[in-house]
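Note to self: the last two entries modelled the partners one at a time, which told us nothing about the interface. This time every component goes in together.
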Amino acid sequence: MRQTLLSAMIAGIFLPLPLLAAESADLAAIRSQIAEMKQAYEQRIAALESKLAAAERQTTPAVAPAGPAAAEPAAPRSERGSSRASAFNPEVSLILQGQYTQMKNVAGRGITGFWPAAGHSHGGNEVEAANRRGFNVDHSELVLSANIDPNWRGQAILAMRDREVEVEEAWFQSLGLGSGFGLKGGRFRSGIGYLNEQHPHMWDFAGAPLMYSALFGEHGSYVQDGVQAKWLAPTPFFLEFGAESGRGAGFPGSERNRNGAGSGAVFAHIGNDFGDSHSWRAGLSYLKTATRQRLAEVHDANDVHGEAGLNAGSQTWIADFVWKWAPDGNPKYRNFKLQGEYFSRSENGDIGCAAEVSGSGEACSGTRDSYRRRQNGWYLQAVYQFTPNWRAGLRHEQLAANSARIGTLAAAELGSENALFKDFTPKRSSAMIDYSWSEFSRVRLQYAQDKSMQGLTDHQWTLQYIMSLGAHGAHKF
Amino acid sequence: MKKSFFLFVSSLLATLAHADLAVFATVPEWGALASEIGGGKAKVYTATTARQDPHRIEARPSLLAQARRAQLVVATGADLEIGWLPLVLRDAGNAAIQPGQPGYFEAAQQVRLLDVPTVLDRAHGDVHAAGNPHLHLDPRNLLAVGDALSRRMAELDAANATVYQQNWQKFRARWQAAISRWEAQAAPLKGLPVLEHHTSYAYLAHWLGLRIVGALEPKPGVEPSSSHLSGLLQRQQGAQAAKLILRTAYQAEGPSQWLAAKAGIPALQLPYTVGGTAEAGDLFGLFDDSVQRLLKAL
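The predicted structure of the combined assembly is written out below.
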């Protein structure tokens, strides 16, 4: 095709000449010239084509170590038409997540017997997020990630809400340390527990388990601003150890503006397969942090409202396991997941009143006395995917608030009737069913019977959508 | 006591020491190919079986443990393993197998892919930007992949380089003879119109001259719907009528059997990869059985 076009062009240029020069000898000479040129061009084209073919074959390294040509995944091939600079743009994905919620209107919604995690309200006049009913575009995330260079990978997750963008995660991760070591730095979801590292769009139920809300507040996860080191043992089964050191500003800790680490965590994970169909992972984690002037509203003996302030060290143990089953290990059509976690948290420190409500007349004496408390809880959930599109799941969760042991001096001033310090057993049971058109879109209906607040049974209905656009990375096990 | 402890430690050390080239193959076909080349010198771990959809594997803890110990990862590429392999590679703490290192090998880089999409839009389903990744079902592609893989294995394990090259040359000669045999046997299949469950058989069709007239999945990765199947059934009246419906071991048999019964044509499960049927015990068995099953259904 190319050759005929070329010769036609050449002929087009030269044809008028022979017409002018009427001599047949000239004509013959010109013809032979054209033929020569044509042949020369054809040879050059053939040479170029063979060169091109050779170059294409050479995407494989011959003998030399895999250079960038072989290393680079299929991207260059597919992006032939696009601009080269944009080929290095990070992978972008956007998670659209929102819901319709129907439940009771409870001001100051929380978990009875558990210290409310402050610092999570978004905007002044807005309804507190935990008590938002009706339609609600609650959680959309923008995820940017890419390899930085051969040694590092980076990822940022921005959570978008009205009038607010929150840096949910922003970290870099090592790629090439080797010997099983991995290093992560920046802001990241801590590796403690099982659910903690998972983003809300990966959750099997709308909303975090009570356990996670009680432990870490509204977002239901513990986020570190710090560093994480992990080591994967060279064993035939999965055995991983990790340690983290961070700022410790997040609940149950608090902003303390100090040198050194404000929180530390260690964890160990173990896991393996049973045959083709079963796989499991179990873990044990420990988190140590501290809080200064953690506030909560209390009523004193004369029913005067005031605020209690806690200074305490907080230590949390979490045990977790997950077991997944799929026939022949092919989860596409049917699979089952059972997961559960248990925590035990102890907080020891001192407590006193921090401030009284203005105008009450009562003075805050500044007396502080001891505060000791051990709380625990668990959840167990099962999710069954029974067709490629449908899944159904059940979850039960229960906490033990256990009474706080408060020194008599502080107890006298803070009052002894506060539900915050009392023993209570918050419970919640949920059932959900969800439908996925593809792995990128899902809609979920959930019912929960919530008895996490004393004297209240809340029937909560949630209709939720989760849509992911763009380059959606792999999910953790 | 002391003796049993010593035994324990020595057995532990034996498992830790990499006496052989440790190969982590993502799918059975590359595991089989690496075993052919490696002979007794390579220890090959295959991450998935023929009964598992390679698109839908989870980054299981056991895979992390194996990737941690691997010296060479052999993957298909072209985004086939995108749902799990990047995560396994990143979390394995193994510098040698990262993309860009000699310890990371992609088959899709060695051959020209079919069905490269011109439009990248998820409205077209789970499209692979680089092209159709089921490339091993054209046995000629295995020549290019095996050639590059044998050189890579020789490079990583120089002590056994000659063994790998010899094994590969022997395999290559047998394979070329087998290709001629299969092509001769499969001559009657030329032009045969077939339906496939997913776009798994593009390369097999390209090689044998089968004519793929449609897929049971309305879009790649989207499960067959009754309306789409009815549409296919209606098309059976026209000139595009298929004579066979093909599926793999990991795909549900319901849709193809429904359509087969309605249209009065056979639904055929092909091995798709090594281990997909009892007969497909190795790479030769895979194509022997595929060709035999196709001929029998004719």
